[in-house]
Amino acid sequence: AKLDSAVNIHSVERFLGELRDRMVADRLVERSLPKTFARPFEVKRENVAPPEKVGGNLFGGFVPYIIILLCFVGAMYPAMDLTAGEKERGTMEMLLCSPVARVDLVLGKFLMVLTGSLSAMGFMLLSMGVTAAIGGSLLMGGGGGARGGGSSLMGVLPLIDPLGLLGVLAMVFPVAVLFSASIFTIALFAKSYKEAQSYVGPSVIVVILPAMIGLLPGVDLNARLALVPILNLSLVCKEMLSGVWHWPYIALIFGSSCVYAAAALFLAVRMFNREDVIFRT
């Protein structure tokens, strides 16, 4: 009954609208006036922003969110295996007996974790890009996907500033170092691989929440938020993908991220030198 009532109201409104237009047209004809007399101009909405700005506004918050999450997840499993996993397998003691400084051991393990983090991010972004390109060409090109694949993809996906994408990758590097060193330190306290999972797993929430805040409308980059880790990366990447480059904020964010990463790496080296942490089995 409610659906029929809504349909009837819509039909009545459409009928009255058409009747109004006919009456106006007839009166204009009687007075020999043009049809544009009652409506001298039309108002149209048109987005005059460049494609990079449109694409940055649509995907500027989503892309950094994915990159941050991939960096963190890519560093989780190598870090847990190289710390708690070696404790559980009993290979940590053999490694410590080798004539290698502990700082070198930490840096070697850390670089392995960092490689896993950056590789996971790079391969996943490459996979997503290839999938989007092939899917867009098949969706819009139909049977002749090879003919109109590139143009159809450009019509479907908003353009993103390529320099902004390179800037995002550059800004992500110190954050990947921060993730790798932090997860390495946390997993080093665990006695086993499962215990390391229970320590590192909940920390994903700490990473996701600031990245999600950067997706919210009305949260703009300023000097105070530029010092908040992860959130500052999400906000500045959204600006760079839109083609907006705030160089003072970019320098502040990159510098603060490097400081946080260096502090996390220093803590990892210090924890690796503690016997009660290394031999906690």
How are the SSEs placed, and which strands pair?
Layout (H helix, E strand, L loop, with lengths): L1 H29 L20 H9 L2 H28 L2 H5 L5 H40 L3 H12 L5 H27 L4 H8 L2 H11 L17 H11 L5 H26 L2 H4 L3
Helix pairs in contact: 2-10, 3-5, 3-7, 3-8, 3-9, 3-10, 5-6, 5-7, 5-11, 7-8, 7-10, 7-11
Describe this structure in words.
- This protein has twelve helices and no strands.
- The chain has helices at residues 2-30, 51-59, 62-89, 92-96, 102-141, 145-156, 162-188, 193-200, 203-213, 231-241, 247-272, 275-278.
- The protein starts with a helix and ends with a helix.
- The model is unreliable at 143-158 (pLDDT under 50).
Keywords:
281 residues; mainly alpha; 0% strand
pLDDT averaged over residues: 79
Structural class by sheet pairing and helices:
mainly alpha
What percentage of the residues does DSSP assign to strands (E)? Answer: under 5%
Low-confidence stretches: 143-158
Radius of gyration from CA coordinates: 29 Å
Distance between the termini: 70 Å
Number of helices: 12
List how many beta strands DSSP finds: 0
**What percentage of residues falls in helices of 4 or more residues?**
over 70%
Label the overall shape: elongated
Q: Largest sheet, if any?
A: none
Order of helices and strands: HHHHHHHHHHHH
Brief synopsis:
The protein is mainly alpha-helical and 281 residues long. 75% of the residues lie in helices and 0% in strands. The model is unreliable at 143-158 (pLDDT under 50).
